[in-house]
Amino acid sequence: MKIAVVGAGIGGLTVAALLQEHGHEVKVFEKNQELSEVGAGIGIGGNVIDKLHNHDLAKGIKNAGQIIDTLAIADNSGTALSKIKLKRNTINLTLERQSLLETIQSYVQSSSIYTGYQVLSIENEANKVTVHFEKHEAETFDLCIGADGLHSSVRASVAPNTKVNYQGYTVFRGLVNDVQLKDANTATEYWSKQGRVGIVPLLNNKVYWFIAINAKIHNTEYQTYGKPHLQARFNNFPNEVREVLDKQSETGILLHNIYDLKPLKTFVYNRTVLLGDAAHATTPNLGQGAGQAMEDAIVLANCLETYDFDQALERYDKLRVKHTKKIIKKSRKIGKVAQSTQRLFIKVRNAIAKRIPNSLLARQTKFIYKTKDK
Ligand SMILES: Cc1cc2nc3c(=O)[nH]c(=O)nc-3n(C[C@H](O)[C@H](O)[C@H](O)COP(=O)(O)OP(=O)(O)OC[C@H]3O[C@@H](n4cnc5c(N)ncnc54)[C@H](O)[C@@H]3O)c2cc1C
C-alpha cells in the first residue's frame, strides 16, 4: 500500500518504521526543516516495550534508557506521601527525548522522510486520499495517517469540531548533567501549593526535571520566568530540587501550557486514520502520551498485517479509542489532585496518600498494561 504519514514525531516515525518493514511504500511529511523533539526527557512505560516484543527497536530504546522501578511522591519538606513500585516483569524507562526520536528514526528509511512539507488539509474519497501541502503539489495515497500532534491539521480536515482543553497549569522543563541522586531508579514528585516538581533520573547522571504551576490560560507572568524565579519559588524544597535547579543553565528552560483533547468517538475516517496526540492528546500526569502514540503505531501496523484493510481499521479503532479515553480521563484526574492549591484539600489528600497501600496505587494503573496488540 502507498501510505502518507503526516508528522515525524515519536508516533509518526514509529508507525513509518513498522509499516516499511511490512513492505508498504511509506512517505513521512514533516512541516519542520529538521527532525527534533521539543522537550527534555520522557518516560516510556513497559507497556510499550512489551508490545515491541523482540523487535530491535525495543533493544535500541533499552540501550538509551534509564530503568525506573519506583515512583515516589513527597511533600515540599521531603516527607514521603506514597511510593509506587512499578509493575514487575517489565521495563519502564526514561530517556532524553532527542535520543528516543533518533533511535526510532534510525529504523525509518531516510529517503522516505520529507522535511519542510506542511500539510494543509486532506481529502478523503472512497478508495483514496489526497494530501494537500502548503508549498508542494498534492499527492494521492491509499491511506493517510495523521500523526501531526495536538493541533493536528489532518484531524481538522476529518473531524473539525474536536475540542482541545486547557488544563489550568503550565509546565517548565529542563535537563541537567552531573547529578548524583540518592536512588537512580526512582522518579520523584514533590507536591505543594507552590507547584509540583518532578525529578527524573536519566542515563549517565543526567536528570530531567519538570515544574507544573497553576496558571490562567493567557497568563503572561510565567513567560518571563527564568532560573532565578524558579530557584526563589522552590528554595524551601528538599536538597535534590535545589541542586538540580542550581545546575540548570540560564537558557534551555522549556515552558508549555498543558492541554488534552476531548476524547474522540473514532480515529478512523474512510482512508484516514489518526494516531498519537492527533487522536488522543493527554496530560503528562501518567507519562503515557508518547507511549500511547507508540502503542497506536504498533497496533495499527499489526492490524494491517493481520486483517484485510477494512477489518484492520475497524480493529485499530476498537482497540485504541476506548483505551486512550481511559488514559485521558485518569491522567486529567491525577492532574487535578496533584495541582490543588486548596489548603484543606491538600491536608486531606496528603493524609490519605500516606495511608493508601502501595498495592492499591499500583492497581490503579494496571489497565495500562492490559491491552491487545492486534
Ligand atoms: C510537559 C510534558 C511532558 C510529557 N511527558 C511525557 C512522558 O514522560 N511520557 C510520555 O509518554 N509522554 C509525555 N508527554 C506527551 C508526549 O510528549 C506526546 O504525547 C508525544 O510527543 C506525542 O507524539 P506524537 O508523535 O503523537 O505528536 P508530536 O510529538 O506532537 O509530533 C507531531 C509532529 O507533527 C509535525 N506536524 C504538526 N503539524 C504538521 C503539519 N500540518 N504538517 C506536517 N507536519 C506537522 C510536528 O512538527 C511534529 O514533528 C509529555 C508532554 C508534555 C507537554
Give a quick summary of the entry.
This protein has 374 residues and is α/β, with parallel strands linked by helices.
Question: What would your notes on this structure say?
Answer:
With 374 residues, this protein is α/β, with parallel strands linked by helices. The protein has a single domain, classed as 3-Layer(bba) Sandwich (FAD/NAD(P)-binding domain). The protein is 35% helix and 27% strand. It is built from twelve helices and 19 strands. The strands form four sheets. A seven-stranded mixed sheet has the order 6-5-14-15-16-13-17. The longest helix has 30 residues. The chain is globular and about 60 Å long. The model has no long low-confidence stretch (mean pLDDT 95). Bound molecules: flavin-adenine dinucleotide (FAD). The site of flavin-adenine dinucleotide has 33 residues, from α1, β2, β3, β13 and α9.
Strand coverage percent = 25-35%
* Total number of strands: 19
Q: Give helix % range.
A: 25-40%
CATH arch. level architecture: 3-Layer(bba) Sandwich
List segments where confidence is low: pLDDT < 50 over at least 5 consecutive residues: none
Ligand names: flavin-adenine dinucleotide
Radius of gyration: 21 Å
Q: How are the strands ordered across the major sheet?
A: 6-5-14-15-16-13-17
- Largest sheet entry: 7 strands, mixed
Overall spatial form: globular
Structural category is alpha/beta
Question: What's the number of domains?
Answer: 1
The CATH topology is: FAD/NAD(P)-binding domain
End-to-end CA span: 19 Å
Give the CATH superfamily. FAD/NAD(P)-binding domain
Q: Determine the number of helices (DSSP H or I, runs of at least 4 residues).
A: 12
Looking at how many chains there are and whether they match, the oligomeric state comes to single chain
* CATH class type: Alpha Beta
On the 0 to 100 scale, the average pLDDT is 95
EC number: 1.14.13.1, 1.14.13.24
InterPro entries: FAD-bd, FAD/NAD-bd_sf
Protein name: Salicylate hydroxylase
Cofactor: FAD
